[in-house]
Amino acid sequence: MLPELLRTMCALLGGWLLLAGPAARAQPLEQQPDRVLSTVGLRDVSSDAAGFAWVATRQGLFRYDGRQLVPLGQLIRQGPHPAGEATRVVVDPTGTVWMGLSGGLYAFVPATGELRQVLLPPRSGQLNALLLHRGALWIGRGLDPCQVFRLPLRQPRQPPRLVWQHPQGIVRAIEPDSAGGLLVFGDKQSWRLLPGGQAQPVATHSHRYRVQAAGGPRRTQVADHPLRLPHGPYYLTDSTLVAHRPPQPPRVLAHWRRSISSAAVPRLNVLELDSTWYWLGTGEVLALSIRRQRQPPVLQHFPLSLARGWNGWLCFNRDRTGLWAFAEGMPGVFTLQPRPAAVQALPVAGGQRLSTRVINRLADGRLVVGSYAGTFTQAADSPLAPLRPWPGEAPTTVWFCSLRLPDARLVIGLEDGHVRLLTGARFEDFVWAGPHPTPSGKATFCLLRTRAGQLWAGGQQGLFRLDLPHRTRTRYREGDAAWPLHHCEIEALSEGAGGELWLATNQGLYGLQPATGALRHYGPTEAGAHHLPTALLRCVLATHRDSVWLGTTDQGLLLLHPGRGVRQQLTQGQGLPHATVSFVLAPPPGRVLWVGTDAGLVRYEPRTGRRSDLTTAEGLATNELNRQSAWYDSARQRLYVGGVGGLSYLEPQALAAAEYRPRLLLTALTQHHAQPDTIRTDYLTGTLPQGLELAPGDAFADLTISLSDDVGPEGRFAYRLLGTGRAPWQELGTGNRLRLQGLEPGDYTLEIKAETGLGTPARNVLRVPVHARTYWWRRPGVWASLTALLMALAAGGVYGWQQRRARQREQQWQAERALRQRIAVDLHDDVGNLLTQISLQSGLLRESSLLPAPLVARVETLTTTARRATQQMSDAIWGLSATAPTLPELLVHMRDHAYEVLQPLGIEVSFDTHPAVAGLPLSVEARQALYLIFKEALHNVVKHAHATEVHVQLTPAGRALALTIRNDGPPPAAPARAEGQGLASMQARAAAVGGRVAYPVQANGFVVEAVVGG
């Protein structure tokens, strides 16, 4: 009897270990229908290195990016456009897509858009099998006979070579075997291809197992024995899990109904992902961990509603992070993600749905939950144990808030306004100690214990102090009837860094210094730093001295700096799922905020701006979360959140590792082209290497993006355009289309980033060069060039005109010079010689003794006149000459002339010449004019002045020369008249060279002032 009892107990214990032990370690399999792929009848799927899936369906071949199916016809840029059903598809390492269509075998290159047909020998029968194996493409085709072709990938354009055929049968699949050879499967018979081109039949009763890891090639095993697991004496068949420890007989650990299969589908098609084997049964997915473990493996069953009676396929998704399950050729595709559960919903005994309020833990370790349906507890030894009603007597009113004291006792605020202390199983009331009647009947919403150990309570009747030792409560400033806090509902309390209390109310935010009673109000009626966009606050959390987070009922989440006002606002337009914020928590170390809303839970990192939305899709019991219904269990590092549909918990530290990092893909470009006026869509291969160019007049360019992992529509995207100064990130939300329009001409860099619904960033950031062109005549360089050209033309024209003027003046001067030189030569040679002869003859006559005395005076006058005429002629010739002495030579000539003219008359002459005069750059005309003016002035002195002394002064006047001739003769009886011949001659000569002559009035004598040159 005893041995039988022991065997029974061992069996029960073993069964419990099989069912309970591994289940605690089991990883849940998220399951949801792929609504895009479910619109077509899938037959085969293959993924490329960029992250796209190529889908063979009854409707043809499509490219799938996780959001959109793109028909092959829209991808082809050159080549034929075949139609009809697609049977098989594979993608080789170069990215070429090989596909079997109704018309035969085709090769498509996505990078170039080229589609070409691969010619096979003309035979009947469709293409049913494609396999990439050892650098070649293997093709199975035909029916009676059936054929296998081989096409080397290094020579993809040569015709495939026939390597084997059989007169009867059909090829349904070609698989690599575990030894590296090939297996050909038909409906009724299968073969193993030998290296020499021969085929060896395979026994019809053999089992076919195919095992493929996410990071490696697939291998198919044909054997008449079960498939052994990697660790331990455990084996799989197509319908059983067996433990076999020889010499003991095999023992069945689990049994299931195998999936419908044919020659195209292995009897057991196993996919390995994260050390777990997955395969299909009838109406379910089966999972088995192959990690080494002490206990026997336990099979998990996940129901799956695939179409019955059709070949069931299980394949990897686009990024090999999950699975796709479908019935071949039938609509209905399911995405299976074996990820750790982000959130766990807590069950309630009896299946009741709770609308929760209080969440806390009792002194004995039990979780306590207050709800509108009563108070519930959970056993302390299991986080997933169901919630059960409070054992024994408890307050019948709703628990609205709770506070755990350091000694593990609970302070509880109730719906009727009372506050109670729970010690073990005993409840004690905090007695009203105020002078006025007991405030009751209105709820207590919040409780707070300060760092100094003071207890506070807030509710519909204001702010209360709690005296724990005496179990009393009093209203703060009870005697002040006008105290503002008596007339508002206090929703939440938080202690600031300086010991101040922050109170979220239905009339705004209040900051209170309890010791002094100083009160600050923030609300929509306040100005400056005290202004808030709303007065309806739900929660408050003071994290730093300058950071107070506010949750509102209609304006989302606010970050308030007490001295500078609202610094940040997070609303629905910026990614918050709902404008109503129920609670805000910041578990240690405080870098992450957990924000409860009416549409889910948000994980928010203020420093980086990253946000993660958790909803029922991630395991949350409900999306509509209740106010203040959240609690962080620091001992177990769990966050509990409650709402109108139940209670959930998560482990924040483990949440970051719950997701795979996908790749960000650029899938399509839709662009308006002004020339011609068309809109064109180009489907891309994951990037845009050449960049994006916007021509003048192009209205817009739309970029379509996606994530390589099948994370669904909850993936979020953001972008920024560098090259326009400060470029903050702009949110796209869950929309995957980005539009560029209205760009100023220039060069930019478009950066796009993405993250999953849980906030896991993509592995890459897309960077797209963008060049916005403008009309050529609007380019700054063109205008600058045209302006420079016009200025150059104008400058050239002015320069040419000046050069022509200069050449004309030079020609005129040369002609005048030649004329003057000719006149001077003629005067010197003809008139000068005659005057010289007259002077000589008159001199000889004057010296003759035969000359009568009356004629002596006349001859003397004639001689003097002849000499003067010769001198005047010499001066005239010098004025006409094209050359003249230098200025120093001229000064010497002026001295000689003065002494020659004045000294014979007894008139003393003196010169005062400045040393700088000799270096003045006077022109030839100026020097000639100076000398002639000087001579005329001396002639006037000799003729009219009756002077005894003449003083000549020469000084520089800038670049000109100033000549002053002063005599001591008596002043003229009337002012000097410019109309006189001599004076007029001097002024004319000075004006001809840009100078002037003046005759200033003096008390004694006469002065001539002349300025020439400059």
TrEMBL record:
This protein's UniProt keywords: ATP-binding, Kinase, Membrane, Nucleotide-binding, Phosphoprotein, Signal, Transferase, Transmembrane, Transmembrane helix, Two-component regulatory system
Q: Which reaction does this chain catalyze?
A: ATP + protein L-histidine = ADP + protein N-phospho-L-histidine
Where exactly are the transmembrane stretches of this chain?
782-801
The residue range of the signal peptide is 1-26
Q: Which InterPro entries match?
A: HATPase_C_sf, Ig-like_fold, Quino_amine_DH_bsu, Sensor_HK_TwoCompSys, Sig_transdc_His_kin_sub3_dim/P, WD40/YVTN_repeat-like_dom_sf
SUPFAM superfamilies per record: ATPase domain of HSP90 chaperone/DNA topoisomerase II/histidine kinase, Calcium-dependent phosphotriesterase, YVTN repeat-like/Quinoprotein amine dehydrogenase
Task: Identify the enzyme class.
Answer: transferase
Assigned EC number? 2.7.13.3
User: Where in the numbering of this chain does the Signal transduction histidine kinase subgroup 3 dimerisation and phosphoacceptor domain appear?
Assistant: 820-881
Q: What Gene3D superfamilies does the record tag this protein with?
A: 1.20.5.1930, Histidine kinase-like ATPase, C-terminal domain, Immunoglobulins, YVTN repeat-like/Quinoprotein amine dehydrogenase
Task: Give the protein name, as stated in the record.
Answer: histidine kinase
Native species of this protein?
Answer: Hymenobacter ruricola
Specify the taxonomic lineage: Bacteria, Pseudomonadati, Bacteroidota, Cytophagia, Cytophagales
